[in-house]
Design goal:
The chain has 634 residues and is of the alpha+beta class. It is 37% helix and 19% strand. The chain has 19 helices and 23 strands. The longest helix has 24 residues. The radius of gyration is 37 Å and the shape is elongated. 38% of the residues are buried.
Length: 634
């Protein structure tokens, strides 16, 4: 066999060869992606050149991968355009030269794209191989096959070879520490990961491995709901079905296709890395695209495929620029449009999945003003109002009976005197007493019970300066109080004052402000903990900054309901001890103080204000108190 030439590879930058070999690519396994991509490029080039009449038209494109365990070789073959000796020297030896740019300049096409740069992609082979051979026959007329061989040093050999059909074989003589790549299961996994949706058939040992069809490259009219769901199940097995999806498709000012899915809420979302898969011309690049989509959309799932997203030479990292930010804005707008469509056309379905959508929409609104404008009328709150009747679609009853309303819908049902005050509840159990009071007077209350609402409510106030958001346990207005219920004790003293004195003496805590009122309603509690809105928000924000759960602030209000039977009994007990001349040390007075402390601790317990180390003492005091009451026959 005659040797055509021997020489050294032309390195355009000193010492670039070991950099390409060891440092450009962060993971060795991507060599297969690069070599299969090169083969796909070669097949596209042959098709374009054949259309121009420059070479013979080949059979249907095929990438074939073969394993030789004895020789410890892995061979990746294609039936693309191939290369002659001059092209091998140009595209292989001159590492910094990009064949893709020159070829596209000659054969411009809007329908086909060349995936990568052959030189750099090809040299990823040396991450796993101690020697690489390339056997190629050009599809152009009168071409002769050539064999190129290199052991990873700048030395190479180029000689005549035998190959019956146009195309290229890349033969990798694997390093001892890289023999995992002669395992069929390992190669199959890599094909599924990187090459699954390539438009060219990829075979391993004669068996087709990849799916080939990329649904996101089709028109939405060509896909059924089942097609979308099937793709989701394939990409994210055992994750259930998606809630809804958004089909992306644009060719100006950049080329981008994709399908994004809203997953069912699991309580766990990746807001840092994300789960959207990035492809470039159907070649998998990365499953972290935090530079492309806004942070609030990262927990979405699906595929974004674009040749216009700038990648570094190894495709392992994205380069952030104005185009990337523009793509992120486009994706956010399409998501907003899809949500508006669902809210308009299927309000009950939208309400049903709202709790899974809420984090995306609320965080997005707070972080992105344009997105906030898009979703301004899409934010829902749970509500205590009954479902809409007649022609009114608001509130909307979702499956399970929970009702939802928009802020605009809520305000439309308020009286003229109260249309600027928005009542809300963040914990139906913890704020049950105050919630029952408001509901008892016919007030509608919004349920703002998602984790993000402690930040979203202040943001809404900032956006709607005319509104005041008030939590149900912040303060009570005159409509909840019985102003005509005035009671005096045996000494002619206002009972409110005597109750206040009793609780002050019992609690002996200047940080607790004691208020006494007569509350309307038979179900009004004996006592409530009230937290002024601004004080509570400062407490919640401090807890958020310290990454802990908000507790009960030291300074708070204890509201005593003097109309409650228990409180009335305490008054009589305390008054009886004074009449009997027992003084503060009398058993009746002591029992009244025990009861007042118990009422306070019960109010704290209802709002989660008792610390774990206080619960044991509370239980012991409760048992002692019940025992004392039984002994007295009360």
């Amino acid at each position: 066999m005659s040797v055509l030439e021997q020489g050294q590879i032309q390195i355009h930058t000193e010492n670039i060869f070991p950099i390409i070999k060891k440092a450009v690519y962060s993971g060795h396994e991507v060599f297969l992606r690069e070599l299969v991509s090169n083969g796909t490029d070669a097949i596209s080039k042959r098709r374009m050149a054949a259309m121009a009449g420059d070479c013979s038209e080949g059979p249907e494109g095929l990438i074939s991968i073969k394993i030789d365990r004895e020789a410890k070789t892995l061979t990746i073959s294609d039936n693309g355009i191939g290369m002659n000796a001059d092209e091998v020297k140009r595209y292989i030896n001159q590492v910094a030269f990009s064949s893709a740019e020159e070829f596209l300049e000659k054969y411009k096409s809007e329908d086909d794209a060349i995936i990568g740069h052959f030189g750099l992609g090809f040299y990823s082979s040396f991450m796993v191989a101690s020697q690489v051979e390339l056997v190629s026959l050009s599809a152009r007329p009168n071409s002769e096959a050539v064999r190129w061989s290199c052991d990873g040093s700048p030395n190479f050999s180029l000689e005549a070879a035998e190959r019956s059909e146009p195309g290229t074989d890349v033969i990798l003589h694997l390093q001892e520490e890289e023999l995992e790549y002669i395992e069929p299961a390992r190669i199959r996994t890599l094909i599924n990961t990187y090459c699954d949706f390539m438009p060219v058939e990829v075979q391993l040992e004669g068996e087709t491995v990849n799916k080939r069809e990329a649904p996101w490259r089709k028109s939405p009219r060509e896909l059924s709901d089942e097609d979308y769901i099937e793709l989701y199940r394939y990409l994210y097995p055992f994750q259930g079905d998606p809630l809804l999806w958004v089909h992306l498709n644009t060719d100006y000012p950049y080329n981008l296709q994709g399908i994004l899915y809203f997953p069912k809420s699991t309580g766990r979302a990746d807001w840092e890395k994300g789960e959207i898969k990035l492809y470039c011309n159907q070649v998998f690049v990365s499953d972290s695209i935090k530079e492309v989509v806004p942070k609030y959309l990262l927990p979405l799932r699906g595929v974004i495929d674009s040749p216009d997203i700038p990648l570094n030479v190894s495709r392992s990292a994205l380069q952030t620029d104005r185009r990337v930010r523009s793509i992120g804005g486009f994706v956010a707008k399409k998501v907003g449009d899809r949500l508006k469509q669902l809210h308009r056309d299927e309000p009950a379905r939208y309400a049903e999945i709202w709790e899974s959508l809420a984090p995306f929409i609320k965080i997005g609104a707070m972080e992105d003003e344009k997105f906030a404008d898009q979703v301004a009328e899409l934010v829902l709150f749970g509500t205590t109002a009954v479902a809409g009747e007649g022609d009114s679609p608001d509130p909307v009853a979702a499956e399970g009976g929970k009702r939802f309303t928009t802020l605009a819908g809520y305000r439309s049902r308020l009286g003229a005197d109260n249309d600027k005050r928005i009542l809300y509840c963040t914990d139906e159990a913890g704020q049950a007493g105050a919630l029952a009071l408001w509901q008892g007077q016919g007030a509608e209350v919004l349920l703002a019970d998602t984790f993000i609402d402690t930040q979203f409510i202040p943001w809404l106030e900032y956006r709607h300066e005319e509104l005041k958001f008030q939590r149900v346990d912040a303060e009570l207005d005159d409509s909840l109080q019985d102003k005509d219920s005035v009671v005096t004790d045996a000494e002619g003293k206002d009972s409110s004052e005597s109750l206040r004195d009793l609780f002050k003496a019992s609690l002996n805590n200047d940080k607790v402000t004691i208020q006494v009122q007569a509350l309307k309603g038979d179900n009004a509690p004996a006592a409530l903990i009230l937290l002024p809105e601004q004080m509570r928000r400062m407490n919640d924000m401090g807890a958020l900054m310290e990454q802990r759960l908000p507790g009960l602030p030291d300074h708070h209000v204890l509201l005593i309901n003097r109309r409650h039977r228990l409180v009335e009994g305490m008054q009589k007990l305390a008054a009886g001890s004074v009449i009997a001349g027992g003084g503060s040390s009398s058993p009746s007075k002591q029992l009244a103080e025990q009861l007042s402390r118990h009422v306070y601790e019960m109010a704290k317990l209802s709002v989660g204000g008792l610390e774990p180390n206080e619960l044991a003492g509370f239980q012991q005091r409760s048992c002692d108190l019940m025992g004392e009451l039984m002994n007295r026959g009360l």
